[in-house]
Design a protein that fits this description.
CATH topology: Arc Repressor Mutant, subunit A
Strand order of the largest sheet: 1-2
Oligomer: single chain
Largest sheet: 2 strands, parallel
Number of strands: 2
CATH class: Mainly Alpha
Shape: globular
Strand content: under 5%
Length: 91
């Protein structure tokens, strides 16, 4: 799959593909993992602009306080919750 986006978005999206099914990471954890520890908001924005959901699983990224955050894929936050439950994530 050829990804179309900014360098930063593509970096985030490629990392999201490494999050195993049934696991979640926070926006901050993703930022740290891609070597941009102060870019949690930018990670959230990259997730929000992800045109490849759910193939690139931005639904596996949540807020540091444990709440879901947003979901830009079809169906919005209800779909994010449904996807996480289908992966047996305790929310």
């Amino acid at each position: 799959m050829i990804l179309k986006g900014t360098k930063f978005q593509i970096k985030v999206w490629k990392f999201l593909k490494t999050i195993p099914k049934g696991k979640v990471k926070t926006y901050k954890q993703v930022a740290i993992s891609i070597k941009n520890p102060r870019s949690a908001r930018a990670v959230a924005n990259a997730c929000a602009k992800n045109p490849y959901a759910p193939k690139i699983p931005c639904h596996r990224v949540i807020r540091s306080d444990g709440t879901l955050g947003g979901y830009s894929g079809k169906g919005g936050i209800k779909q994010k919750l449904k996807l996480l439950k289908s992966e047996k994530v305790a929310i």
